[in-house]
Amino acid sequence: MTVMDTVSNAVQYIFLAAAACFVMGLHLMNHPRTARRGNTLSAGAMALAIAATVWLVTDENVISSTGWLVLISGGVLGAALGLWAAREVQMTSMPQLVSLFNAVGGGAAALIAVGDLLQADHPAALGTRVSLPGALDIVIGAVTLSGSLVAAGKLQGVVSGAPVVFPGARLLNVLLPASFVAGTVWLVLAPDSQVALYGLVAVALLFGVTMVLPIGGADMPVVIALLNAFTGSAVAMAGFVLDETALIIAGMLVSASGGILTKLMADAMNRSIANVVIGGFGTGDSAPATAGAGGAPAQVRPVSADDVAIQLAYARKVIFVPGYGLAAAQAQHELGALAQLLTDHGIDVSYAVHPVAGRMPGHMNVLLAEANVPYTQLKEMDDVNPEFPQADVALVIGANDVTNPIARRPGNAISGMPILDVDKAKSIVVIKRSMGHGYAGIDNELYTDPKTGMFFTDAKKGLSELKAAVGEFVG
């Protein structure tokens, strides 16, 4: 056995070990308590796989000096951008960052297939084993790239969060996938055709845009999970193109987990994935209807910080219900401080987390973890709903559609969607800047419930006022 064979075998064993670590890391991410360890294990395995790849190409001497310059420059630039994002990007911007990560992953996978087909010595002689996964890689990767960029734009507010439906959009979204099939067959039969190659790239990029534009902001958690699954599929196809087992395994893990998460998010909204992709649901962020207590409708009961503080200070059980308004105000630390004050006073505190609260899967969990909220206080919808009737106070911070009792009745935009049973609490307080709608574009009946008090204020300011007021009562 030659030295080159020995190195190649060693690298394959390293790839196998890295793949095993990916599986274990993914398993650890099932629970917030072990998620950080799983992330560290997966990142370490990826670093090991990259180092093994560099060792292999160094031993085989297949990269020119220019290639090494590109490789090193890309690695340094990517590491620098990743470090900057980890330190500087706020938790409120995590959904946008995840969408950008999906775009980068899908785009990189597509470029692998494009580069492999263009650089082949005899592209016409490429077998189906390479050309078919290559064509699928281009389609999935390019759709993920452009679709994720549009999703990030919607989340950032650069693109309207409301569904953008132009004349002929539905027909176009039927014709473009048909073009994928024709383009894929063409490229498989004629791998040397640059017209087929570039045409497939262009059509896929266009479909990514037209697919995500009609989808409203309320569906962004599902869209992000779906595009994440697309990214994994594109990476797996790239693994087939390069004949790299580790890449195939890593891609399929991402694809499978993203697919499962997409299904869970869709089920949490009582909508099918197809219905989400068709789009046209909701209105995006609505303009404030009326700001402040003075302009609130007559049936709404405004309350002050002192009113709420008295209820909290003398409660035995309090359930906090966070939503995107908490993230937008960056008020997670103020909420954590208020909860800690109540806990220290002997009050039973918990957080009701709806699966689609926020703008990406797990958004509220990540946000509250940043504020060092104990994992034991975070409760999923099915676990916390039976506790609402025993809650003396349910404090809603920026959550809207996921608390709307109208979902229990047929004939409206969110009919059948599982919601948090906030209206069953003994007393309800909603912190909100105005009476503006949520993404579904309908009134929330919870706000006019006789048990509900509306505390019209910015979440960060309001929670700070509540902590100070509660401190006076319990101090």
| Total DSSP E strands | 6
User: Biggest sheet: strands side by side, in what order?
Assistant: 3-2-1-4-5-6
How many separate domains make up the residues? 3
**From the alpha-carbon coordinates, what is the Rg to the nearest angstrom?**
25 Å
The multimeric state of the shown protein is single chain
H/I helix tally:
16
Give helix and strand order, one letter per element, not per position. Answer: HHHHHHHHHHHEHHEHEHEEEH
Percent in strands: 5-15%
Structural class: alpha/beta
Shape: globular
User: What percent of the residues sit in helical stretches (DSSP H or I)?
Assistant: 55-70%
pLDDT averaged residue by residue: 85
Protein name: NAD(P) transhydrogenase subunit beta
Subcellular location: Cell inner membrane
InterPro entries: DHS-like_NAD/FAD-binding_dom (IPR029035), NADH_DH_b (IPR012136), PNTB-like (IPR034300)
Keywords: Cell inner membrane, Cell membrane, Membrane, NAD, NADP, Translocase, Transmembrane, Transmembrane helix
